[in-house]
Amino acid sequence: MKRAEFEALGAVEREHWFYKGKRDLVRYFLQRETAPTPDDIILDAGAGTGELVQELRTQFGHTGPQVIGIEYSEEARAYAKEANGLDLTPGSILDLPLANDHVLISCALDVLEHVEDDQRGLTELIRVTKPGGIIIINVPAFKALWSEWDVSLGHFRRYSMPMMRELLAPHLAAHSIEIVELKYINNFAFPLILGYRMFRKILPSDKRAEDSIPAKPINDLMHTLLVAPAKWHWFQAPFGVSIFAILRKRTG
After folding, report:
1. Confidence band (pLDDT; 50, 70, 90) for 209?
2. Rounded to an integer, what is the distance from CA 27 to the centroid of its chain?
3. Contacts by 192-199 with C-beta closer than 8 Å and gap 24+?
4. For strand 89-90 and strand 66-71, is the pairing parallel, antiparallel, or unpaired?
5. What is the pLDDT confidence band of residue 69, given thresholds at 50, 70 and 90?
6. Left, alpha or beta for 74 (phi > 0: left; psi -120 to 50: alpha)?
7. Is the CB of residue 52 less than 8 Å from the CB of residue 27?
8. CA–CA separation, 56 vs 91, rounded Å?
9. Which pLDDT does position 135 carry in this prediction?
10. Structural domain of residue 44, as residue ranges?
C-alpha cells in the first residue's frame, strides 16, 4: 500500500462505522473469551496506522497487558509515528519477530488477503499465541465485491467460507486450534456495497465512499448493523462483506 492509502485510512478510521465496528468487535470478543493480566501480551499483526493498538493501550492503561503492533510497511509505520505517536515494530505476518507461545491474543484485521501465502501467515499467528489464547481474524469476503479498492490496497483475494475453512483445515486436523466463532459479518451492508461497486464499474469515479464518513445518523446505524449481529452466536447469515473468525489455540 502507498502512503496515500494510509493517509486516507487515517483520516476516517477512528469514526467510520466499518473500521470502528471491527475494532469494537475485537474488544468485545477479547473481553468475552479472555481475562488479560499485566503479564500478558496482545498483538496486532499488520497494525497499519496503529489505531487498534492505540485504543487497546488506552483501554487497559499502564497497569494492563502489553499491546504491541507489528507492521511491514515503512510508510504505515512512519504515519503511525507522525499521526499517533506510536512506535510500531517492523515485521511481517509471514515471519513474526516473536517467540513461540508468546502472546495471549493475536489479531489480524484485514491482513491475510494482503499476502500470497496466507497459510503461512495463519501458521505464524498460531505459533506465537499461547495455548489457551485466542486468534482474531477478519478478512474481506465474496469475489463479487472485488473492486479497484481491493486493487489499490494490494489484495490477493476476497474469501468465501469454503476458502476460509480450507485455510483452517490443516490446523483443525492437527488439533492445534478450535473454532470459537466463524461467520460472515456486515451482512446488512452487503447488498448496498454490492450495488455500489457494480455501479462504480459502470460509471468509474476518482472519489471512493470508503474515504469519507457518512452523516452521523447513517454512520451510527451502519455501525449497529455491523456490530450487533456479529455478537449473536446463533446468527449465521449466508453472506457478508467480511468473514470474522475467533480461534482458540489448544492446550494439548
Report:
1. low
2. 12
3. 193/145, 193/241, 194/142, 194/144, 194/145, 197/145, 197/146, 197/147
4. parallel
5. very high
6. alpha
7. no
8. 20
9. 98
10. 3-249
- Give the whole-angstrom CA distance, residue 242 versus residue 180: 17
Q: Please tell me the predicted confidence (pLDDT) of residue 2.
A: 64
The answer to whether 181 and 244 have CB atoms below 8 angstroms apart is yes
Task: Please list the alpha-helical segments (H only) found in the chain.
Answer: 3-12, 17-33, 51-60, 74-84, 118-128, 148-153, 161-173, 190-202, 216-231
Query: Is there a contact between 245 and 166 (Cβ–Cβ < 8 Å)?
Result: no
Beta bridge partners of 107: 44, 136
- Grid cell locating 212: 469519507
CA distance 206 to 110: 23
Give the domain CATH number at 159: 3.40.50.150
For the chain, how long is the longest CA-to-CA vector? 54
Question: Which cell goes with 164?
Answer: 476460509
207 exposed, middle or buried (CB, 10 Å; 0-12, 13-18, 19+)? exposed
d(Cα 120, Cα 93) in Å, to the nearest integer?
A: 8
Q: For 169, what's the count of Cα atoms within 13 Å in the CB-facing half-sphere?
A: 7
**Can you give the pTM of this predicted structure?**
0.93
For 16-27, write each residue's pLDDT tens digit: 999 999 999 999
Residues present in the chain in total = 252
State the total domains in the chain: 1
Assess contact for 71 and 48: CB atoms under 8 A: yes
Q: How confident is the model at residue 5 (pLDDT cuts 50, 70, 90)?
A: confident
- Rounded distance, CA 93 to CA 115, Å? 8
